[in-house]
Structures are given as C-alpha cells and as structure tokens.
Design brief:
It holds the Pfam family Rab3-GTPase_cat. By secondary structure, the chain is mostly helical. It is about 60% helix and about 5% strand. The protein is built from 27 helices and six strands. The protein is elongated, with a radius of gyration of 41 Å. The two termini are about 60 Å apart. The C terminus is likely disordered.
Length: about 650
C-alpha cells in the first residue's frame, strides 16, 4: 500500500469525500420529504370530525392525489439514487482512465487512420503521390485477395453488389440492445450506399486520372534486365497477367486501394461506364496497344481491352477505304482514265485499269498494291493484291467457344467465309483472273511452275495446281465458282466491330467477381516482381531467396491454384516487399531459418524454409507439404528445389 503512487491515493480520497458528501445530501432530502409527508396526517387528525361530514367523492379525490404525490416522491428518490450511482461511476472511470491512456490513444489513432483511408479524397491524393520507383503496397495486394474470397459465391459482379434482401439485422438480432441493432442497421445502410454523396466529384477525378492518356498517373519506372530483355515479358506471360505498364495493372492498384469489396465493385462499374463512353466517342483506351491482335498469354480483361482498341482502328480504316472506293468510282464515271497512276502502295484512291480477255479496259476495284513477279497468264497484266477483310479478333474465351462449336457441329468455322471473301476481293481487283492466279497469290505451295530452262523465255511461265487442288469436289474450286467480283468494303462484314465491343462491355459488367479480382491480383503481383528483380538480382545474399519466391509464384499460377493459395501468395509478396524496403531484416530471418532447419534435407527443407519465411517461424516447423502442394510446386524440380 505504501508503494502505491501518491496520485492514486489522492484521487481515491477525493472520490471518497465526494461520495460521502453526496450521501449526506441524499439523507437530508429524504428527511425533509418525510416531514412533509407527515404534515397532511396531522392535519387530517385535527379535522377528523369535519372530514366525516365531507362528501365521499371529495375523500376519494384527496386519496388519489396523495397517492400520485407519493409516487412522484418515490420516483424522485430513485432518480437521485441513479444520479449518485452515475456520478460515482463517472468518477471511477475518471480515476481509471490514466491506466489506459496508451491503449485508448492507439485505438483512437487506429480509428482515425481507418476513417482517413476510407475517404475517397485521401485515396486520390495517395495514388497521385505514388513514387515511380516503389512497388504496389502489400496491403493493396491483400485487399484484392480479400475481394477474391468475398466474390466466390457471386456469379457476376451485379450479383456481388446486389443486396440479399432475405435477412434483416433487426429480425435476426432481436435479443441485442437498441444501440447494437441501430449500429447494424446503420452499417447495412452504409454498405448499400457504398460511397457518400460527396464522393462523386472525387471519384470522377480518379476516373479522369486513370483514363488520362498524357498524364503520369501511377507511372512506374520499370528497369529492363539487360542480360535477358524478354525476361519481364515471359514472367507476366507465365502468370497469365497483364503487362506491367498496362491499363489493367493501374486499375488493379486503384481498385485494391478501396477499403471494402463493395466499394471496389462499385468503382469497377464506373470504369466500365467510362470504357463505354470512350468507345462511343471513338477514343483509345490508354496504356493498351493499338491495332494489335489480342495477346492470348495475358489475362482475359487485357485481351478484351485490346479488342476494343483494335476495333476502333478497324472502324477508322473501314471509313477511309469506303471513301476512297467511292472517290475512285466517281472519278472513273467522269471519264478520267489515268492508268499510269497505278503504283500507289496501300492507297486504293488511284484509278487502276486492267485488260480482260477481250482487250477491254476494266476498272480495278479494291486493289491494294501490285504483287511482284506475278501476272495474269492469259493477258500479261500485273496481279494486284486486294484490300481484304480483317479476320475476327479471337480472345481466349472465343477460341474455346469456336473449338467447341466445330467439334459439336462439324462446321468449317470462320475459315470458309474468310476464303470466299478473299476470292471475291481478288476478282474485283484483277478482272479476268482465274483460280490459278488466286492460288498463286493466296497459297503458293499449291502451285508448281513448269520447267522453262529449255523452252521459249518469251512466253509467259506456265504451271499447274497441286494434286489436292485438282481433286473433284475441291472446296476451293466450289467457292471460286460461286464468288462474285466484289470489293471487301462492299461485302457483308465477317467481323462486326460494334457487336463485338458491345459484347465485351456486357461481359465486363457480368464477369464473375472472383475471376475479375483474381486477374487484378495476379497482375499487380507480377508488377511488384518485375520491378524488384533488377534491384535484388545484384545482391548475392537476397537473389537466391527472390528467385525461390518467383518460382513459387509461377508454380502456383500455372497450376491454377491461386484461389487456394491466396494467403501464401500474399506472404510471398510481403517477403519480396521486405527485400526491397528492409533487406537487413530479411537477411536476419534467413540466417535464423537456416539454423532452425539445418537438420532437414531435400523437398521438406525447401518447403519448410519457404514456410518459415513466408508465414513466420511459430507453428510451421512441424508441417509437412501435402501431396497436392508438392505436385503444384514441382513443374521445374531442377530449378525450384535446388539450393
């Protein structure tokens, strides 16, 4: 007791004196109320004879009034007791606060930080201030992992954000206090809203930054490996991720910065709406290649965005080709036959004429350029390659659907339609041509030139079709006979760009939640590894562990076990982040791990070492890898399991 601090004794004495004073006041009040209660009784005895003469109704009213007064007095006493108890509790709490000041301060700081991070304005400022040399934070990667787990039960993103409507916190939690139910109801309302009304302008600013073509939003300084220039590309392809400098990676970092999966999903729909607006305004999506076929080694979302940009370029080319063809026909109809102007590479505006078998000049339609060393065998006219229709843009999902269709129906697929379209365009560009001329241009291996070493060099070279082309019922010959001379721009489109993009935008809205967040998760992890590798590879002590982590991630992604190994992948990413930010701490952990696992060899040593580093020492030393884990981690045993 002597060792107790003086401040505590002083506060205890103050509290005791205060309680004693309050008790004395309560007793005084009670005594005065009792005297007032006895006064009507004395008056009643004094006037007893008079009261007996009074009317019975007056007496009843008097008693009723007295009872009401006594009830009020009792309530007053109870209220005073409650006030004293509340004040005592308050003083006791005041005395106890100094012992928990540190904890309360930490809790308050944590709450303030969470509120700050949930603010959209703070998020925008943070993302705009990202260092070009920094990798995405591990907390963002973890948030995407949380979203993957949350989205497992949703078939589409719309289902993911739709309220269930089957349960109510008030009905299910009827036994809770009023304040608890109120908190649940308010939380449910906040979850339904997702964003506050004042967040709209901030979200628009964030969208504008993300879609700004000329801005420096989330631009990362990615250093290429001089020893292996294709190393960065091959790693992202192994993970089936988006390229490190692509729009999808930026989007992954933005979405992962939101504090709840619902907010992440709501922002995704805002992005899809912006993509739709870009298509309507014929604007390219930033950080997505232009006019390139989809990269089937990247994630599906990146492939879809590639198709959108490619369709924009095709639309522009289609309009230009149509205008050029109309101008050529108009000029030809006016009688201007400038046949000398026929060498315009890639420009169908030129008026090109060819002689048919009767010697009549016929206008070439849809000619693109002259083919070297090829002439019409009968007339000697130059052969021109036509402007052909672009083939369909096949993404990973469309290829799978096409294969299933061919196997189920036995159809030839789109190849037959493409061949017929090319034949019609070739006939329009080369009046008087035959199937032999088309085969020489389209499929040279199916044409064999005759030996002219001993013949007359002045005669045009002759040859013959291959055996398969000469067979009866050959598909090429059947199509050639039905083909009409028609420029590609006037043909029925083989690939409808508007329909394709509309289908992609709908697919982006209806994509399964877990599938979307998984693609964003893997793409962001790939960016971190690509940025760290040039820095860590120069450190002999850390490079070995880094490449072990890299091989581990590749094995998990190639094995299709991302969803099952989310926690492990997050721990791996944290380890890589620590290598970059706190290399000394990682080196100390490595040394401790080597000492702890010095008696273990082979596969178990490898697995235990990674488990120690990724998950921590405690609770993992007795764990043996399961057969599934070993299979998932054995694609490259010579590299992955070697020390």
């Amino acid at each position: 007791m002597d060792a107790m601090p003086a401040s505590f004794v002083s506060k205890a004495r103050t509290a005791f004196n205060s309680a004693a004073a309050k008790s004395e006041r309560v007793l005084t009040d009670l005594k005065s109320h009792r005297e007032e209660e006895e006064q009507p009784t004395r008056n009643h005895n004094y006037s007893e004879g008079v009261n007996e003469v009074k009317h019975q109704g007056w007496r009843t009213a008097h008693i009723r009034k007295k009872q009401e007064w006594q009830t009020k007095l009792n309530n007053l006493r109870i209220g005073r007791r409650k006030e004293v108890d509340d004040q005592d509790k308050f003083e006791d709490l005041t005395m106890a606060i100094p012992f928990y000041d540190a904890n309360l301060y930490i809790l308050k700081a944590k709450q303030e930080q969470e509120a700050k991070e949930s603010d959209v304005g703070y998020l925008v400022e943070t993302l705009n201030a990202v260092d070009v040399n920094s990798i995405p934070r591990a907390s963002i990667v973890k948030q995407l992992a949380v979203a993957i787990k949350a989205g497992k039960g949703a078939k589409t993103m719309k289902d993911f954000i739709a309220p269930s409507g089957n349960s109510s916190p008030v009905k299910e939690k009827g036994g809770l206090t009023l304040s608890a139910v109120k908190s649940l109801v308010l939380g449910e309302q906040e979850d339904k809203l997702g964003f506050d009304s004042g967040d709209e302008k901030k979200l628009v600013s964030l969208i504008n930054s993300l879609f700004n073509v000329d801005g420096n939003f989330l631009i990362r300084m990615i250093v290429s490996d001089l020893g292996s220039p294709s190393n960065r590309v091959s790693f992202t392809k192994d993970l089936h991720a988006a390229p490190p400098d692509s729009f999808v990676v930026k989007l992954a970092e933005v979405i992962g910065s939101f504090t709840t999966p619902r907010r992440m999903a709501l922002f995704w729909f805002k992005v899809v709406n912006e993509l739709r607006r870009f298509w309507d305004e014929e604007r390219h999506i930033p950080c997505i290649p232009l006019d390139e076929n989809p990269d089937l080694k990247s994630c599906l979302v990146h492939q879809w965005l590639q198709v959108i940009n490619c369709c924009l370029d095709r639309r522009v080319r289609c309009i230009a080709a149509s205008e050029a063809l109309d101008a050529a026909i108009s000029q030809a109809s006016s009688g201007n036959e400038d046949s000398d102007n026929s060498e315009g590479m890639g420009s169908p505006v030129s008026l090109l004429y060819a002689k048919n078998s009767t010697g009549e000049l016929v206008l070439r339609l849809g000619a693109h350029h002259q083919v070297e060393n090829l002439t019409i065998l009968e007339t000697g006219e130059a052969v021109y390659a036509p402007v052909t229709q672009d083939g369909p843009l096949l993404t990973e999902d469309l290829i799978k659907e096409t294969e299933e269709l061919v196997l189920r129906t036995g159809s030839m697929g789109a190849g037959c339609s493409q061949l017929l379209s090319d034949m019609q365009a070739f006939k329009a560009a080369n009046p008087g041509c035959t199937l032999e001329h088309f085969v020489r241009w389209h499929s040279p291996p199916d044409w064999t030139e005759n030996d002219t070493s001993s013949g007359d060099d002045s005669s045009p070279p002759r040859g013959q079709l291959s055996i398969r082309m000469q067979k009866a019922g050959n598909l090429w010959r059947q199509l050639w006979e039905t083909a009409k001379p028609l420029p590609a721009i006037k043909q029925t489109p083989l690939f409808d760009e508007d329909l394709a993009v509309e289908g992609i935008l709908n697919s982006l809205e209806d994509i399964p939640a877990a599938e979307l967040f998984e693609q964003l998760f893997v793409s962001l992890v790939a960016l971190g590894f690509v940025m760290v590798e040039p820095v860590i590879s120069t450190n002999d002590d850390l490079s070995k562990l880094f490449f072990e982590c890299k091989d581990y991630v590749v094995a998990i992604c190639e094995g299709g076990a991302v969803t099952d190994k989310l926690d492990d992948l997050c721990q791996v990413y944290e380890t890589v982040e620590a290598m970059l930010l706190r290399p000394e701490k990682v080196l100390r952990s490595m040394k401790q791990t080597e000492k702890s696992l010095s008696g273990v060899n082979g596969t178990k040593q490898r697995f235990k070492r990674l488990s120690f580093i990724f998950r921590g020492k405690e609770g993992n030393q007795k764990r043996v890898p399961s057969e599934t884990e070993q299979k998932c981690m054995e694609p490259a045993p010579a590299v992955f399991w070697s020390f």
